[in-house]
Amino acid sequence: ACRDSVLSNGSGMCAAGGSICIKRNAQSCGECIQVSETCGWCSDPDFLGEGEPKSARCDDLESLKKRQCGVDNIENPRGSVVVNRNNPVTIRKKDVAEKLKPEQITQIQPQKLTLTLRSGEPQTFELKFKRAEDYPIDLYYLMDLSFSMKDDLENVKNLGTDLMREMQEITSDFRIGFGSFVEKTVMPYISTTPARLINPCTGNQNCTSPFSYKNVLKLTNKGDEFNRLVSQQQISGNLDSPEGGFDAIMQVAVCEEQIGWRNVTRLLVFSTDAGFHFAGDGKLGGIVLPNDGKCHLENNMYTMSHYYDYPSIAHLVQKLSDHNIQTIFAVTEEFQPVYKELKNLIPKSAVGTLSSNSSNVIKLIIDAYNSLSSEVILENGRLPEGVSISYKSVCKNGVVGTGENGRKCSNISIGDEVSFQISIESTSCPANNKPEVITIKPLGFNEEVEVVLNFICDCECAANGEPNSEECDEGNGTFECGACKCNDGRIGRTCECSKDEVRTEDLDANCRKDNGTDICSNNGDCVCGTCECKKRENPAEIYSGKYCECDNFNCDRSNNQLCGGHGRCECRKCVCDANYTGSACDCSLENSTCLAKNGQICNGRGTCECGICKCTNLKFQGPTCEICPTCPGVCTEHKDCVQCRAFNAGEKKDTCEEDCNYFQLIKVNDRDKLPQPTDQSFPLTHCKERDANDCWFYYTYPVCLLSVCLGHLKCVISAPECPAGPDIIPIVVGVVAGIVLIGLALLLIWKLLMIIHDRREFAKFEKEKMNAKWDTGENPIYKSAVTTVVNPKYEGK
């Protein structure tokens, strides 16, 4: 626990300074349980010792148990979650003959819970959402009827029946409505000349008078009615490029009855090819009153456009969310960037690219609806002060989201079920200590979860308190939870003093030990004649005693630990744990650390003091007096005595009886009959030594005390093992034979080398002979002996 300086960082209960429960100086059980979920209050009336303040009753649970507060006396109320309404989600099919009403369809579970919250203890519950098949849809088409939208109006005239046909694939319960907007009917947005108020268009164009917003068709399931009324609409005009669409959106959102919204999926399609005016732009026309966010439709026309400014984006977001309306912005390519930025500010909204003449509006609506309906985003209502909420989503295919991503799930198909882990935590009690109600709902859906929050602001034992109790100085307080809760103006553990009397000489005298000069030993304050000891920066360090003369941190230390880590400090003296003694509990009474390998305490050559060997034989050292750097080995040490006793030889032959009578000797016939270490109950050393004649003798030696090993009982073989002399003849024959064989081997090697050399020389000669070239021409100085003369007259006949 924190009081023992074992600090925890996981729960926030303890920090480097100790328990947060003690630091807060709680004066009642109610104050204590508000500090942290890990704090408890001991209601045992006899729990506190002398000098301990009332706040010492508040501590972490483990510390209270260690301070001998019974489990039944520890007040530690816990929060809870109770599900009040838990209707299962609806499984609805399109092909079923009997259709459910919208209010009979459930897509979110549970529907109502009651949470009991204790400060610092979050309560978690699971919320499930499942998209219902064939869920009803209301779609309101809000269109810009300024002059630039003339060709778009032609394509929208048949939208009702065409859209009805397409939406049949999604739902069998679909309704559609239509509204239009232009601009505020004041300068400089429109021309206010009489002629332009009748026909704002130039040239031969026939346009209708300008207006702010008109509800043309209330939501209906009659597509042909939509076509008929839209076909009767005419284009109007204005002067500036931005339009007054925000006025129209606000009226569509708040005028539920006039528009005909049901508690189903609500879609608002906003179609335009221009930007928008927003809050503040009304000043151009002299309009300064902020939009009031209320319905002002008379005969389906917005009548207060000249009186109220445009709504702000935040105001629109609030109203669209409050009325569960999902917005689809169908705008031309030119204004895509503007409306995409607007989409990021409006939850559950989408942007589609409208062709220049709105020919793709049906596909745009279907795609946008599929995108919106495949995503669920949770939002909660206003939270009471001191209450926080966190979300963790478990979406399709087990994808987990936390933080802001924990509020939403995407790519949800019809019939898919997702869940959310929602944690609600309170950090304090509300001022009025009354239940609070918050709502959690998926954006764009009419269903919501009601969460009732109850707060634990006091302990159960406080309900059994005794007002004006005799325990509290004759009725000056309420005795509750084992302590006095003083009335106003009274202080002290038992409310024994008035605040006006807390410093008098008579009362201070009761706080001086042995009539000394120090009040409460300078470690506390004298309150009503009783010492209340000071609290140190580390709450684990405590002053106590009637005069605060004791503490639990000024005891002797060992190894930089209070009481050596083997005791507790009480009134500046160490109270040692079992098997420890000394002023700092640094002397262990255990001798297991002194046992040598042979089982002796300190190897029989020292004493064990406080778990450490102190060697009496100065030749020996080490933790168990087993190391002797200047000592010969055991075998060498006893060699001469064993040799003289067993074979009447060696250096101690003449003094054998005097020097070597400290052990018993048993002879065995051969080495195999010597005792083995596994046959004995004490360590045994096997020795092998050589005498002056180079003969080996073997013996065993027990490494233990005389009393244990019966006088160092040694076993030795009856005769030494001496090596036999060498056989000369085989050695001589072997040497001669070796020399002969080596000579023959050398001759054979020489002969082999000569043959190889000759063959190489002969091969070289043959190669040179083959490569020789002989000159076959005549000798240049050779003269033939025959001379041939030709007759010049000879004609060859």
From TrEMBL:
Topology versus the membrane: Single-pass type I membrane protein
PROSITE patterns, per the entry: I_EGF_1, I_EGF_2
Subcellular localization(s) per the UniProt record: Cell membrane; Cell projection, Invadopodium membrane; Cell projection, Lamellipodium; Cell projection, Ruffle membrane
GO molecular function, one term: collagen binding involved in cell-matrix adhesion
Taxonomy, superkingdom: Eukaryota
Spans through the membrane: 728-750
UniProt domain Integrin beta subunit VWA: residue ranges: 28-459
Gene3D superfamilies registered for this protein in UniProt: 4.10.1240.30, Cytochrome c1, transmembrane anchor, C-terminal, Laminin, ligand-binding face of the semaphorins, domain 2, ntegrin, alpha v. Chain A, domain 3, von Willebrand factor, type A domain
Swiss-Prot/TrEMBL GO biological process terms: cell adhesion mediated by integrin; cell migration; cell-cell adhesion; integrin-mediated signaling pathway; muscle organ development
Any GO CC annotation of this UniProt entry: lamellipodium
Main location: membrane
Coiled-coil regions listed: none
Disulfide bonds: 29-39, 32-69, 42-58, 201-207, 255-295, 429-687, 457-461, 472-484, 481-520, 486-495, 497-511, 526-531, 528-563, 533-548, 550-555, 569-574, 571-602, 576-585, 587-594, 608-613, 610-656, 615-625, 628-631, 635-644, 641-722, 660-695
Keywords: Calcium, Cell adhesion, Cell junction, Cell membrane, Cell projection, Disulfide bond, EGF-like domain, Glycoprotein, Integrin, Magnesium, Membrane, Metal-binding, Myogenesis, Phosphoprotein, Receptor, Repeat, Signal, Transmembrane, Transmembrane helix
Domain Integrin beta subunit cytoplasmic: residue ranges: 751-797
Domain Integrin beta subunit tail: start-end pairs: 635-727
Family: Belongs to the integrin beta chain family.
Protein name: Integrin beta
Originating species: Salarias fasciatus (Jewelled blenny)
